[in-house]
Request: fold
Amino acid sequence: MSPQNAEATWPASPAVAPCRLVLTWSAHEIVVSKNHPLLTVGREETNGIVIKSDKVSRLHARIDYRNGHFSLTDQSSNGTYVADSAGTVYKVNSETYTLMGRGTISFGIDPATGRPHLVRYVVGP
Reply:
């Protein structure tokens, strides 16, 4: 009996769909992914998303891709509000929140009390 080729006996690794986060606001869209793993949001023109509002800090928040997950880290004084697809709103203030599924993000303005600049997000393949 001859030995079998080990590669022929092991099942193939399952293909993993590349994960990405799509952010849309007004007529704009930007993708955060393995190829573009960092996005900053704030008032300064150097940010990937620029929001001109006195409630938004110069560098308000950052969104990172790491190991297939997307995290939003608030770096502001007014906080960031994330609403998930069920409509539950989370206030992120000087902490990190993991973005999953779909929802909206409001930088500096609680969507229940004011007119926010909403950014829609979708995490998926």
In short: The longest strand covers residues 118-124. Residues 11 and 119 are 42 Å apart (CA to CA). The radius of gyration is 19 Å.
